[in-house]
Amino acid sequence: MRIIACATVAEELIHMGFPQEHMKVLDFALHVEPQKLRQRLQEEIDNTEGDCDIILGYGKCSNALEGLSSRTHKLIVPRVEDCIAIFLGSQEEYLRVQREEPGTYYLTKGWVIAQGNALEEYSRILEKYGEYRARRVVGAIFANYKRIVLINTGNYELDESRRFASEMAAFLGLALEEIEGSRRLLKKMIKGQWDDEFILVDKGLPVSFY
Amino acid sequence: MGDYTEKIEKAVSDLELESISGLIGEALEGGVDPLEILRGMSAGMTKVGELFERGEYFLADLVLAGEVMKEGVKVLEPHLKPESMGAKGTVVICTVKGDIHDIGKNLVGTMLSSAGFKVIDLGVDVHEDRIVDAVREHDARGIGLSALLTSMVDSIGDVVKALERAELRDKVKIAIGGACTTEELARRMRVDALGREAVEAVKIFESFMAS
Q1: The pLDDT of residue A150
Q2: Among A61, A43, A50, which residue's Cα sits nearest to residue A4?
Q3: Rounded to an integer, what distance in angstroms lies between the CA atom of residue A52 and that of residue A55?
Q4: Mean pLDDT over all residues of chain A?
């Protein structure tokens, strides 16, 4: 079994003891460019050697996974929207939390690390454009968010993430909540319990959520 | 005259947030036709879209361009004759129920009003009933729905069904856009068009009005 996963999902799997040598971790930032993400994933699938199944540590992710295929490996994908559903334990729970407050910005440790990169991006804007413009850009991006939700998956110490989340909330003027996540889907993923909550794609066929 | 239009186009494409208002004010004082100014801004925005496509601009730059347009429109709007503002017809736009991402939707709104449409922007996380009401109230002939989250695409279908129930579906055409939208989704949701880039919106809605 091999896993190709987004850095945010990989962060959880590593804490659950999945061997890193069997995992290929891709950049979190790819999720904002679905076409590029699809391309990278297909490359990694094509580069995977040996007789093994490949789990993709992703969800629909803006349809980036639609159409991926492998002639030599079976592909397994969680039947979820994106990584947030994975961290919350199910697609249903994700929809429930999201409907409760559509203006929710989710954080996990993996996202905090990735947000570090976003802060670098902010520094880049700040350097390039100065504070006024940088503030306007950030203000426009976060205009409709109401709260930051830190998901506690129980995989690691959260102190550092809590600090980051509260700083981010203060900076953006958003409410901060912490909610209980779940390792349920992650466990099923690595234990090979691929039931209806997963899409199983035979060799030569394309991944399709629809 | 042409000088100002070019300067304004360049100010938009160079993302000159601080100077755009002053520049437009000067152009207006100099007697430049407000519609000319709008065209300049719109051309600047098209350029921004191209630079983004080429990878020279990033998402943050695109957002900043949206802010530049907002500033410009603020100064310009009082000088535009109502008939020229809405001359091309009325469209209702929003981000669908359950979704709050509006960077693309705002860009589309700015592009459409710059091009002469009357734009009724209902905001984000909008219930289908509000869309039906707005179409009726403003006699709109086009609807633009934005969706980023794949989990919320069903909201697009809810709008279509609500319009059918209200017997308005034949009266309006619907375009969708946003990160999760595809040709396949447009067919499945039975909408009339898909836009990939904000600048495409003008052509799409012009074709809606012509049909």
Answers
A1: 94
A2: A43
A3: 10
A4: 91
Q: What is the DSSP string of A53-115?
A: -EEEE---TTTTTTT-B-SSS-EEEESSSSHHHHHHTSHHHHHHHHHH-SSEEEE-HHHHHHH
Contact between A136 and B151 using a beta-carbon 8 Å cutoff? no
Residues of A in contact with B63 (CB under 8 A): 137, 140-141
Q: Which residue of B has its CA nearest to A100?
A: B98
- Smallest CA-to-CA distance from B68 within B22, B11, B127, B30 is with B11
Count of CB atoms situated within 10 Å of the CB of B71: 20
Q: Are residues A50 and A112 in the same domain?
A: no
Q: Backbone dihedral region of B97: left (phi > 0), alpha (psi from -120 to 50 degrees) or beta? A: beta
Distance from CA of B179 to the nearest CA of A (A): 6
- How many residues does the structure list for chain B? 211
Instruction: Assess A132–B contact: CB distance below 8 Å, yes or no.
Output: yes
- pLDDT above 80 (res B183): yes
Of the candidate CATH numbers 1.10.1240.10, 2.40.170.20, 3.20.20.70, 1.10.1520.10, the domain formed by B2-80 belongs to 1.10.1240.10
The complex scores an ipTM of 0.77
Name which CATH class applies to B84-210.
Answer: alpha beta
Q: Write down the pTM of the prediction.
A: 0.81
Domain presence at residue A207: no
Residue B83 confidence class, pLDDT cut points 50, 70, 90? low
Interchain proximity A94–B124, CB inside 8 Å = no
pLDDT above 90 (res A102): yes
CA A73, CA A55: separation in Å to the nearest integer?
10
pLDDT digits (tens, 9 = 90+) for A142-178: 889 999 999 999 888 888 889 989 988 998 899 999 9
Q: What residues does A75 pair with on adjacent strands?
A: A54, A201
Per the DSSP assignment, residues forming a β-bridge with A179 are A151
Tens of pLDDT, residues A33-77: 888 999 999 999 999 999 999 999 999 998 899 999 999 999 999
What residues make up the domain containing A60?
Answer: 2-83+184-201
Rounded Cα gap, residues B65 and B48, in angstroms: 7
